[in-house]
Amino acid sequence: MTTGTRVFTRGDALRWGVVLLVLALDGAWLAASERSVTAASLGGSCLGVAMLAAIATALSLIASHPRITATSRGLHYRRLALVAHCGALLVAFTNVMSVMSYLLVTLAPPLVDGRLAALDRMLGFDWPQVYAWVRAHPGIGLILKLAYMSGLAQLVLIPMLTGLLGQATYLREFIANLMLSCVLLLLIAAPWPAAGAYVSYGLASPGELATVAHFGQLRDGTMHVFDLGDMQGLVSLPSYHTALALIFVRSMRWTRVGFVVACVLNGLMILSTPTEGGHYLVDVVAGVGLWALTAGMLHAFAGRRMPALAGRAAPTQLA
């Protein structure tokens, strides 16, 4: 079995270690602040992770059977196991990081909305005018809304498609990009929180304001119970939708058609971020920077790791 089709690697152990570390921090912070996660949503999340992990383990064991491992069925089982394993990792990671993002908002440092709006003006971007223009053109608004909402669907479909079609290297790259970018996102956003353009300009509809309602409740201390099934994206700077769009595009470069589709869809998603996500333009620029920083760090890490692997392989080749 080659590394590309291996279900569990040492890198996966590191990723699960990150999940467990954040989980421990979440638990300690929740207890110290007398906050909690609803039992129903926590139980549902744990059950989902456990089921996916069990499926991955079972399929991996089946694939490793001597009568199956060298056959095409063994390859299919390994691919399914890898997808299930990555699914378990994604569900666990997104949940623990969602809780951490909420807890970081409760720190309530001064808002930076004024500075972000001023930077937008320096860039020549008039958010209220752009928002009004999009709302005056319902067809364009619908396209941008659907593009913005596609982020969640892509987060599920891209790793499934990549894994099932045997692109294990790209799948693991996708997971690494997603996890590192999310950690960096919270480290950047925590000291520079912003309520967002929806709240700052007061032009959004009640439905749009409802998508960021938890932000104020967390900052003023009135929200003490978190529902994992009803978590909101509360980070304004940098725009994670922008970073994700670029990660999605990069993860599909193994297929020409998929890459072109990803470029068009995620280009629209980036364009939709200011009006459909309530972001300042500078948030989008920072989202591009977040993606570049993540890609650069992972590239540097891979560059340092390859010589070490080559050094360990050399004695084997000589033998």
Structure in words:
Residues 313-319 have low confidence and may be disordered. Helix content is 75%, strand content 1%. Helix 3 (72-105) crosses helix 6 (138-164) and helix 11 runs antiparallel to helix 12. The chain has helices at residues 10-33, 39-63, 72-105, 113-122, 127-135, 138-164, 168-189, 197-201, 206-210, 213-219, 240-251, 256-277, 281-318, and strands at residues 36-37, 225-226. The protein contains 13 helices and 2 strands, in the order H-E-H-H-H-H-H-H-H-H-H-E-H-H-H. The protein has one domain (3-314). The chain is mainly alpha-helical and 319 residues long. Strands 1-2 form a two-stranded parallel sheet.
What's the arrangement of secondary structure elements?
Elements: H1 10-33, E1 36-37, H2 39-63, H3 72-105, H4 113-122, H5 127-135, H6 138-164, H7 168-189, H8 197-201, H9 206-210, H10 213-219, E2 225-226, H11 240-251, H12 256-277, H13 281-318
Parallel strand pairs: 1-2
Helix pairs in contact: 1-3, 2-3, 3-6, 3-7, 6-7, 6-11, 6-12, 7-11, 7-13, 11-12, 11-13
